[in-house]
Amino acid sequence: MNEVNRVRWRCRRGMLELDLVLARFVDRYYARFTPDQKRLFGDLLTLPDNDLWDMLTREEVPGADEEMAPLLRLLRRC
Amino acid sequence: MTNVAKRTFDTLVIGAGGGGLRAALQLADAECHVAVVSKVFPTRSHTVAAQGGINAALGNVSPDNWHWHMYDTVKGSDYLGDQDAIEYMCRSAAQLVYELEHAGVPFSRLDNGKIYQRPFGGQSREFGKSQATRTCAAADRTGHALLHALYQQNLRAKTHFFDEFYAVDLLKDADGYVLGVLAFEIETGEPLVIEARTTLLATGGAARIFQSSTNALINTGDGLGMTLRAGIPLQDMEFFQFHPTGIAGVGNLMSEAARGEGGYLLNAAGERFMERYAPNARDLASRDVVSRAIITEIREGRGCGERRDHVLLKLDHLGADVIKQRLPGIRELAMRFAHIDPIERPVPVFPTAHYMMGGIPTDRHGRVVAPAMFGPEEAVPGLYAVGECACVSVHGANRLGGNSLLDILVFGRAAGNHILEYLRDNPYPRETPPDALEVPLQRLRRWERPGKGETVYRIREEMRSVMERHCGVFRSGDLMTEGIRKVEELHDRLQHAVIHDRSKVFNTARIEALELENMMEIALAAIISAQARQESRGAHSREDFPERDDDHWLKHSLYFMEGRRMDYKPVRLKPLTAETFAPKARSY
Ligand SMILES: Cc1cc2nc3c(=O)[nH]c(=O)nc-3n(C[C@H](O)[C@H](O)[C@H](O)COP(=O)(O)OP(=O)(O)OC[C@H]3O[C@@H](n4cnc5c(N)ncnc54)[C@H](O)[C@@H]3O)c2cc1C
C-alpha cells in the first residue's frame, strides 16, 4: 500500500497529460511489476516533465537504455 | 503545540512555481533565511506546462514599448485591471526578461542574436493599430526553462526546500498577524509547524474546480482555501478563462495552432457553424467568442456524439503531410487522449477551464490586502501572495496569453523586495499563541475518522460537473441560483465523507480530501461571485445581462467565506505615471 501510494503521489506532475498517462499506467500494470521494474519506473519518475513526455511520445528515444525499453513500450500504450 | 515539531525561518514561501521561486531568490540573495514548501517536487509545479512564452516590449522584431503593452493589458482586462499594477508590470517586463536570461534561461534567438519574439492574440502597436510581436520564448518550453533556472539559482543561494510537504492552514495571532503555517510531511504524515515573520502564498490556480480543465491535478487552489479560512476575502472569483478547444471528456488543450493551420469546427449537421457567429474571423475569433458559440450549438441540440455533448475539430482536409509536419504534437494528443487520428477523423472538442483571473487580493508589492477599519485595502500583517493564486489585479476580467508568466515574475520579485523591508521593520518574531494550532490540527484529524460515508472522489466529480453546468462559459441568474444550492449541498455532504486509507505514509487519499475542502470553498466563491455580478465583462458572460455595465459594475468583487457574502471595492483607474485608459467598448 505505502509503496504504491508513494508512486501515485510522484505521478502528480506539472502537466495534465502526464498526470493522465501515468495514472492509467499505474492502474493497469503496477501491481504486476517485478521489483526491478518498480525500480526502473521509480527512476523514470525522477525525470523532468518535458523529458518524460518526450520519452513517452517519440518513437525512438536516442540514448534510452535497453533495460527501460519494455517499460516505455507499455507506457506509450497508456 | 508542544508535541508538534517546529522550524523557524525569517520568511516562508508556500509554492515552488515561478512566482514562489522568483520571490525566494530575491530573499535568499539578500541573505534572508528563507524556506520554500511545495507539495510536489519544485520543478513539477504547473509552471512547467507553459509553452507559449512571456510578454515584454523588447521591440526585437518590430517597434514596441511598455505603454502599448499596458494599453493592451488594460483593454484585454475589459477595464477591470488595476492600472497602477499594470503599468508597474509592463514597465518592469524587459528587465525581468534580461534577469531571466542571466539566470540561465535559454531563450530562442533571432539571427542577430537578440531574444526571439512571437506575435500573440491581443498584442498591438500604437494602441490598437496593428499586430505587435511581444512574446519571448524558449522554444516551446518557456515555463520549463524558467522554472528549472530559478530552481538552480535558489539552490545556489541556499534557499531551504521542504519538498513534498503539504501546507494545511495559516497560523495567526489575536492581532491578525500571520505567523507561519501548519504543514505535514507527505512521506511520513507527520505535522510540522513552520514559523516565519512573513508568509508568502504562491500556490497557483484552481481551474480544477471545473469538470473540463487544462490544469494539472495539483491545481486545487490550496492557498485560496487557507486565505478564506483565515477570514480574508477572495477577489474577482467569477472570472475564469475558458479555452474553446479542449479534448472532450479529458480537457487538455488542442492549441490554437490547429485552427491557425486551417482546422475548423463542425456541429452535428456537419455545418461550419463559426461562420454564423463570426463571419470574418470565423474559427479564429477570440477565445471567449468561440467558446460561447460551441456551447450555444450544444445547447440548441446540434452537439455531436451519442450524448450530443461536444463539437468536432476537423483537420483531415489539411492532408497527412501538413498534419505530420506542422501539428505533430496536436496529432499525438488526439491519438492518445481521444483515440482518434486527426488525419482520418475529426476530434471531439469542448471548452475547457484554463486560467483563474481572480484570487487573493494584493497590492503591487504583493501584500495581501483586505477591508478593515480604515479602508478596503489594508495590509494583513505578515502575509503576501503572488502568482496565479493572487489577484493584484493585472488581468482583470480576462488575461492575455503570455502575461501570466510575466505576472508571476514581476510580482514575485516585488514581493521579495517588500518582504525585506518588512523584516527590517519587524525584527522580532511574535509568539504563536497556544491555541493557534487547534483548528488546523482538527482539520487534519477529521480525516482519520472511521465509519461509513461517501467517497471524496464522488463528491469531487459531482462538484466539478455542477460548476461546469451552472457556472461555465454561459451563465444566467436562475442557473446559478440552482448551482449554488447544489454546491452548498455538496459542501454539506463533504462534512460526512470518509476516506478508507488511514495510513500515515504517502496517504494520497487524505491529501485529496484536504484539496477537495479547498476546492469546495473556491467553487462557492466563484459561483456566488458570478451570480452577484449582473453584467457581462471579459470571461464572465451572462445571458440575462449581456452588456458590460460600467455605471454599476466597474468594481472588484470580494467574497467572504463567513456568511458567504459579497463586498466590493473600486478599480484603481489611476496609473503610476501614465494617463488613465478610460473604459471603451472592447472590440478586436
Ligand atoms: C497548459 C497551460 C499553458 C500555459 N501557457 C502559458 C504561457 O505560454 N504563457 C503564460 O504567461 N502563461 C501560461 N499559462 C499560465 C501559467 O503557466 C500559470 O499561470 C503560472 O505558471 C502559475 O505559476 P505560479 O507560480 O503562480 O503557480 P504554479 O506554477 O502552479 O505553482 C504552485 C506551487 O504551489 C505548490 N502548492 C500548492 N498547494 C500547496 C500546498 N497545499 N502545500 C504546499 N505546496 C503547495 C505546488 O506544489 C507548486 O509548487 C499556461 C497555463 C496552462 C494550464
Task: Walk me through the structure.
The complex is a heterodimer of chains A (78) and B (588). By secondary structure, chain A is an all-alpha fold. Chain A has five helices and no strands. Chain A has helices spanning 2-10, 16-29, 35-45, 49-57, 69-76. The model of chain A has no long low-confidence stretch (mean pLDDT 88). Chain B has 588 residues and is α+β, with helices and mostly antiparallel strands. In chain B, the strands form six sheets. In chain B, strands 1, 2, 8, 9, 10, 11, 18 and 19 form an eight-stranded mixed beta sheet that branches. The longest helix of chain B is centred in the last third of the chain and has 25 residues, at 508-532. The termini of chain B are far apart. Chain B is built from 16 helices and 22 strands. Chain A binds chain B through residues 1-2, 5-6, 8-9, 12-21, 48-50, 57, and chain B through 39-40, 43-49, 141, 144, 147-148, 164, 186-187, 213-218, 250-252, 332-333, 336-337, 501, 503, 505-508, 511. The structure holds flavin-adenine dinucleotide.
List keywords for this structure.
heterodimer, A: 78 residues, mainly alpha, 5 helices, globular, B: 588 residues, alpha+beta, 16 helices, binds flavin-adenine dinucleotide
Arithmetic mean pLDDT of chain A:
88
Outline of chain B: globular
Q: Provide the β-strand percentage band of chain B.
A: 15-25%
Distance between the termini of chain B: 58 Å
Uncertain regions spanning at least 5 consecutive residues of chain B: none
Using only C-alpha atoms, the radius of gyration of chain A works out to 12 Å
- Total of DSSP H or I helical runs spanning 4+ residues of chain A: 5
* Secondary-structure class of chain A: mainly alpha
Q: Helix fraction of chain A?
A: 55-70%
Number of strands of chain A: 0
By DSSP (H or I, 4+ residues per run), the number of helices of chain B equals 16
Count the E strands of chain B: 22
Bound ligands, each once: flavin-adenine dinucleotide
